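Entry 12.
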Amino acid sequence: MARNIEGLKKYWKDKTENATTKVDEAIKILSISGAKINFNTIAKESGVSKNFLYNNDSIKQRIEELRNRQINHEINQRAKFDKTAKSKDIIIQSKDKKIAKLEEENTRLKLQLQFLQTRLYEKI
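Predicted 3D structure (tokens):
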């Protein structure tokens, strides 16, 4: 007596295809919204179990690649911010030096003006 399991095979194949479609849609939505992409967020968004995500090699690899890409992007953004913060510090130091020089020159010129005013007053 041979068992007929063709119906079960078709059911599981359709169920897997449906879950894969849900995962694809969830990835699109999370990518567009800029949300973090990881197994938890995709499982919640798609309504698919994390077990399915981990057991399906192609989906697992895709999620890991997207997650790593996001992490690398965040690291690059932080590095850019750090560079701009450092450059701001350098600009501020440069301006502080220039201000100090100008204040020194201003003081020197005020002294010269007082000296010249004194000499002019003495001649009158």
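Annotation: Helices lie at 6-33, 39-46, 50-55, 57-123. The chain has a mean pLDDT of 89.
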